[in-house]
Every structure is written in structure tokens, then in C-alpha cells.
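Fold these two proteins, one after the other.
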Amino acid sequence: MENKNGSKQRTIANAVEMEGIGLHTGFPSRMRLVPAPPGTGIVFRRSDLKYFAIPALRPYVAKVSYATSLMKQGVLIATVEHVLSAIAALEIDNLYVEVSTMEVPIGDGSARVFVESLESAGILEQDEPRQFLRLLQPVRVASGDKWMEAVPGEGAQFHYSIEFPHPLIRYQEFSFRAEPESYKREIAPARTFGFAEEVQAMRQAGLARGGSLENAVVLSKEGVLNPSLRYPDEFVRHKVLDLIGDLSMLGRPLIASIRAHRAGHALHYSLCSQILKNPECYAVATA
């Protein structure tokens, strides 16, 4: 996402903390966001393991089923995509994300609490220039009828479409041009979602043990178990939220127009990998 304030890197002015539970582990989790010097990037640190550091970069992405996890030397940090989405959306380049256990607290299942925490900490402009990946050639990835493509464009633009055989979803699509204020209004409040009929199987597989109506939209066969939706198309908006977080693993903001159909974390990272392994398809630029 392009920083309209110029081409300088940014961090936060003060450290800020939040507590909660992990969506999949159900473990209590405390997270502290800490300013980092220019050139650091986004680095997760396990505060319970002597601040073992894992950069939020594509080579450290380990698991992408239902959530994005980072791993280095056997140390895991799970469900990082929502906080990364908020960090990217607010155009923050350098930050330490300290987590007290193996999973980031889920908040209410959206990115809103992370946006609020980052804004309460204050945004600090730094002296070093900001770098971007400007896409020069189209890149496409697919798996069956699921696909994604990125083409050269101005700014960061997204068009996402999903299909589910559920009366509240069916076919949804959403277009979004990356900009902090519109992200806060249109994307950040959109919550993760799942189907009630799948909950038992997920928990038997060690997933969704911290899930509840407080941190996810849960769909019954005909409707939702939650009191209400935040948007009629909250489901596809959350997919855009996830995509913005996953693309931040490129290490620099991507300047491109991106279309995705029925994609998910695995295909998001397939696109990242395809871009990074073909240096001729992008240029590193400032401003």
C-alpha cells in the first residue's frame, strides 16, 4: 500500500499491548507491539522463548490451512494474518510483534482491534526511504477452479470473489483500492467465518478450540448463529483482509492489481512464491 505521506519508512511511536486467546489453540495469549528501527521489517518474537525471532517473510511460512503460521527452527507462531493485515494497511514497515505463546490473540476475529492498538501507539515516520515491489509482468496461479492473478497497475488494488453453497453467501465479490482510511472503514471490521457443521471435526483436528461467537461468524445451515453481520458481504471482505496480510510476506508493499477467485491462504502464498522466484517480473522502487 502506498504511503501518501511520502516515501519514508514508518514504525509506531510507543509500545502497546493486548491480551486474548488463540483461535485454534484456545490458549491465553498476550501480544506486545514494539517500535523497530529502519530496515527491520516485521519480526515476530516469542517472549516465552527468550524472544526467539521469526521474520514475517515467505520463507518462514509453514502452515496455511485455516490460518497462516510462521516457523523457524521448530518454533511456531500461528494465526498471524490479521495483525499483519492491519500493519500493512496502516503502512507500517518496521515492528516487533512479541507473542507470549504459539498463537496470536484473535480479538474479535477481525483486524479492527489491531488497527485500534496501532493507532493508539501513534505512527512514527523514519529517516530511511520506503521500498516497494512494482510488478512488471502478469503472474497467475491456479488450483482447479481456484485462481489468482496479479498484473501491473498503479497503487495496490484487489478484486476478490467467493462461492459457497450457503444462502447467505452463494456468490460474493468485492473490489478494494488500498488506502488506510478505506481499509479501516470497509475491511478491518470483517470477521473470520466458519460453518457450524464443521466445528466438531475441526476441534478433533486440533483447530478452532478457542473459537466462539465472540471471535468468528458461525454459519448454520440457513443463517448465522451470531446476532448479526457487520456487512451483507462480510465473508468476501474478510478474504480481502486475509489477502492483504498474506501478501505482506513479500517483505515490501506490492504495487499491482490483483484478482482472486475462490482462493485462500495456500493460493495467496503460491502467488507470493511465483513472484519472488521470478525477479524479472518485478522491480524494487521507492515512492
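Now the second one:
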Amino acid sequence: MKRRQFLASTCALAMLPRTVFATQEPISLRAEAVMQQVLPAGDGRTSMLGFNGSMPGPELRLRRGHKAEIEVENALEEGTAVHWHGIRLDNMMDGVPVLTQELVQPGARMTYSFVPPDSGTYWYHSHYISHEQVARGMMGPLIVEDDVPPDVDHDITVLLADWRIREDGTLVDEFADMHSVAHGGYMGNFARGFLSRSQVRKGDRIRLRLINAATNRIIPLRIGGAAGSVVALDGMALPVPRAVSDITLAPAQRADVIVDVQEAVAFDMLTRDGTYRLADLAIAGVNTARQPGPISAHAPPVLPKPGTPTQHFTLSMMGGAMGGRHGGDNIWAFNDVSDLQPHPFGKFQRGETVRITLVNDTSFPHGIHLHGHHFYEVDADGGLGDLRDTTLVNARASRDIICVFDNPGKWLLHCHMLSHAVGGMRTWVAVA
């Protein structure tokens, strides 16, 4: 990433568009071409895709346990579909062409209707040629509000992404060039964060909802000017908050942190060349009423408890540059097979507990995402670790996960480095 762009990125604050709250009326999202000031003011504007005239799309705020209806109008010149990432919803509402729905064709509309069962931080994005449509900007935050909100002065969403962009603002549209697909994926040369608020007071206690909406970039994040705890990962509350240190977010992962503001808050991405400023929260005034105190755990999610696994599968990630040969017919493969096949990777009965060993036999990390469910990462001692919907498996490493497959339907299982997904890292499971 260019030093000039790094310096320029600190000169302007990128704000999320107006929040849309769920009411008795359906929420309307219009997928359309937009012009966006991604680069700092004074540099070129960028022709992108977005929702409701902006990129990112508006922040959607839903209520846990209450039915949401979201009408998507396709004003693009190509088909699309919208996935509600991390929400444990009905299969037909998951937004995956071929598996769960037909494409929303240009000029058509589709209403997605679901009841979010869990509070937390989620997001929505295109799931059709998503390596391109998301890279062009089809994404936005989705928040399911807590029944009892935590004691904070501000609830702030921070959506992070990157783009490969020229100084005149033009996107480099080689979204599926073979070199990128075979390596780490289509990476940007410019990154920034979009915040739902621009300033806070010294002494405020704030909740930060961090979302990595980049198509391929893993973001090691450092939050400066504040101290506190991580309280949730991928929308799921931690049983015990843990101290904030450097946070690593794979594409599609989220983290909720609650921090006390000590000075201007800086969001820095850690790179081999030093820190790269993604966003800032300015200081305006002092909160003299807030008294520092312990940060409490959020209400635990209501999820089925895993039993003894009845099946144990291995999912081997194969291929890519500097990788071994495999039997698939694309750049990447799972278990010697590329892309979606007529038969699922696994068949499960509803409520069945399954253990999956994720083996990364490649030279690159992969963020593996399961639709419609959360799963437990198995910790170093063999116990149940964090609840996630996306897990990062480093190159030449492995990780076990345990999932209770309690949501019937056909569910996508794929790498959320979207270049790797289009390169073959996609499969599915069937839950009866």
C-alpha cells in the first residue's frame, strides 16, 4: 500500500450511511451502481456497486426474535442475490444461488423474510459472483440489537475493507486474474474503515463493532487510544470478556469490543512495513460522569449443546501456487474436488453433533465459513473454544471444529477469501 495513500487516508473520515431500523414495514434495499468517494477528498471518485445509493450500504438494525422483511430490488445490469452473513435463518432465505434461490434478475425484486435468533454483529453482501460484486462494494453492516443493551455511551460500527484502485479513483477490475486467485486473492492497494460515528469524548465507554468486509485481506488490527475487552466474536458473546490486544480478523469475521476512551481512537492495520491507518475517532469534550468499572459479559447465545460427535469428517484444502497437485478441475480444491458438486460433502440428521478436521495443505491461509450455523473451534486442550461462523486456518496448519447441525437445508461451506472460492474452494452440506 502506498505511503501517499496512507498519509492521505488520515485526512478524511469515511462515514457509514444512515442507519435503517426494522419496523412493521419491509426494509428496502436497492442494488445499484453508485459513485463513491473511497479515496480521500480531492482524489478521484470511484464507480462502484452499492445499496440505496451508497457504498457500503446502510446499516440495518433488527430486533432479536422479531420477523424482519427486507425487499431487495435489483437495479443492476446483471443478476444478484444477498446473503445475511452469520444469521441462523431459514435455508430458503440464505441468499445462495443454486443452493437456496434463483437469481434476482435485473429489474426484479425479492423479499427476504427471517427471524434473527441471536443478537450480535453481522453483515450482508452479494453472494453472486461475489468475488467481483463484493469487491465493487455490495456490502453493509447488519446489527441484531441486544434485548438489554450494555452500559456504554456509544455503539459504533466499524466496517473495514480494501480496494485495488488507481489514483484517479478507477477500480482495477481484474477481480479473477489467475495470479491473484492462485495466491492470496485480489488484494487492495488502499484500505479504510467506515464508522457510524465520527467523534467521542475522553472518558466515554464505547462499543466497537468491527467487521472485516474485505474480499481477501486478513486484517491484523490494533486499536490505539482506548483500553477494554473483547466481548463477542462473529456475533456470539464470549462467556468471559478477554483483554483487548491486537485483533486478527479474517475476511467476514467480526469482533465486538468495549473500551474506555483515553485519547483519540486510532484503528491501525499492522503490516510488514509498519502500521497503516484505517480510521480515527476524534475527541470532542470530556465525559466527567462516567466512572470506570468492570466490563460484564453479554447474555450468552441460545444454542444447542454439542453431544458426542456421531461423525468425523476431514476437509483438506488443496492447490494454489506452491501447492501440490489435486484431482479437482479448478485452481483450488477440497478433498480433491473443486466447486459445487451434485452430492454434498456431508449428510447430517437435524441435531447431530459432527466433528470436522480442517487441514490446510496449501501455502496460504484460508477463512472457512459455514452458512446457517455457528460452530465451536476446538482449543489446544481439546475442549470447546470460541463460537464462530468463520475460522482462520493458517498455511500448513489444521483446526478441528464441532458443530451441532440443527438447521435443516442445503448449506454452503467455503473459503471466504472470495478469490479462493471462485477458484474452487466451495462445497455444501445437507441437513435433514
